[in-house]
Description:
Elements: H1 2-14, E1 17-20, H2 26-41, H3 50-62, E2 66-69
Antiparallel strand pairs: 1-2
Helix pairs in contact: 2-3
Amino acid sequence: MKYAICLALGLAGCASWHWERPGASEGDYRQDEKLCKLGVYSGTDGAVTQAQVRVMHACMEGRGWRKVAN
Length: 70
């Protein structure tokens, strides 16, 4: 059990990233994230699919954000 927990935490750490946009503030990020989430996830039953995640990422990228490794 301890091995499984360590493995899960290790893998999660390897995939860490965040969104960046030159000159953008934290408020800009929150606004763009909110607008993208409303457009992508509204009307869902709470389950999120990989297709929706891809659309969400495309929305953020369309607003000038880029994924950057931590």
